[in-house]
Every structure is written in structure tokens, then in C-alpha cells.
């Protein structure tokens, strides 16, 4: 009697089993983008110019007020934002490897010194928040382990 064997292929691609050099090339393709001052608005953005020769507000300008004389007020858009950063949230290994590519292969530019200072302050605040959460997590784990140790000691003492 013939036997039919069905094999189910894994639904996810084993990305982390690729050689590191290949993974780095993929991170580079995904995470390296032109600097803000070289970007253009996407065609569907309301700030995109309708003709190639007409000027447009650069995507990195995020202020709501008119950024330059003669330009209308601009509510900002997301055209200058980096895309595909979610790959860094895949897991710790992807974060470590992808972050290295993101921060070493990209050019970061700022419209004004104030925008740089704001960006830097945000990064510093995020780092401090992450460290605070890590400390809280470690404190919680330490308290939990101390409670378990005390409980084991108490149980041993009653036997
Ligand atoms: Zn835009």
C-alpha cells in the first residue's frame, strides 16, 4: 500500500542561521537609508511638490509654522523617518547586529542644533528609562529569589 508523506515546511525563514556576513548585508539593505537632507517626500505626501521643478519643503522640517519665506504652513510628515527599524525588535541578537549596522553605516544629519539637542536628549532619556526599568526588573528578580530562599529555609526548618 503506498504511503503518502506530507512534510510541513517551517513558516518562518531561519534568518539567524544565515552566515553573519549575509545577515550584515541584509541589515545594510534594510537599515541604511539616505540622510535626511537627501530625502524627498513620497508621492502621496501632501507636502510633495506636484511638478519636479517646483520647490518643496524638505521632509526633515517638522515645524508646523512656515519654515521658509514663501512656503505655506507645514504640519510635518513622516517622510524623513527611518523605516524598517522594527527589524531591531525581532530579538536581542538582531538588535545587537542590526544596531551596529544602523549606527555605523548611516549618516545622521540635523536641520538645526536645537533639533540635534532634542534628539540627543530624547536618546539620553530613553537610555535612562531603559536602565531604570532594568534596575527595577533586577530588583524584582532579587526580591523574588530572596523570598524563595527564605521559604526553602523555612520549609527545611520545619522538617
Ligand atoms: Zn512628506
From TrEMBL:
Region feature Disordered, mapped onto this chain: 130-159
Q: Where is the composition biased (Basic residues)?
A: 150-159
Q: Where is the DUF7730 domain?
A: 15-116
Q: Which InterPro entries match?
A: AN11006-like, DUF7730
PANTHER family assigned to the protein according to its UniProt record, in alphabetical order: F-BOX DOMAIN-CONTAINING PROTEIN (PTHR42085:SF2)
Q: What name is this protein filed under?
A: DUF7730 domain-containing protein
Instruction: Give the species.
Output: Apiospora aurea
